Amino acid sequence: MTTVIVDYNSGNLRSAEKSFQRMAAEVGSGKVVVSSDPDVVRRSDRIVLPGVGAFGDCRHNLGAIGGLFGAIEEKVRTGTPFLGICVGMQLMATRGLEHGVHPGFDWIKGDVVKMEPADKTLKIPHMGWNELQLRTDHPVFNGIASGDHAYFVHSYHLVPKNADDLVATVEYGGPITAAVGRDNMVGTQFHPEKSQKTGLRLIANFLRWVP
Prior knowledge:
14 strands; four-stranded mixed beta sheet; alpha/beta; single chain; Rossmann fold
């Protein structure tokens, strides 16, 4: 069994690679590879799409590697377990509204919009540790409870049209989307590879998950 972490020039993947390899060894879920090759994606059993930076830049980079966007789309539409992280999660949306309008995968109906906390003293980007508030049960969050902390760095968040797609939020001058999920897809706005115990548990759960 192979989990591929997609490399599309949108962030340093070293910490993610190390965390996924560590948990793959612990749960016996096969190997973890980092690749930008569409054929590697097509042969994979699980897909992780990270992402750091602006939505439009990440979408451009993903589309600039011939066949990569289509390979991910094909695999996810046919049931391959998928985890999006940070902007990788935002790309699951219909569109991103950061510096223009940019299309996403449209798996989770909704827009990625700028955070506007009701408390104007709160800084943007939202950076650091925050307490998760679980909105629904999800197998990838087994053993993770409301109040557990995760690490965030972002200025935009995905607002899903369907409340059933919302897995977790955090409070930051109002509710902010922390995780979404539907069918074989799940995404986290926070960085599990930087979220210590909570993040490692989520990674292990994903590697064992059979949607």
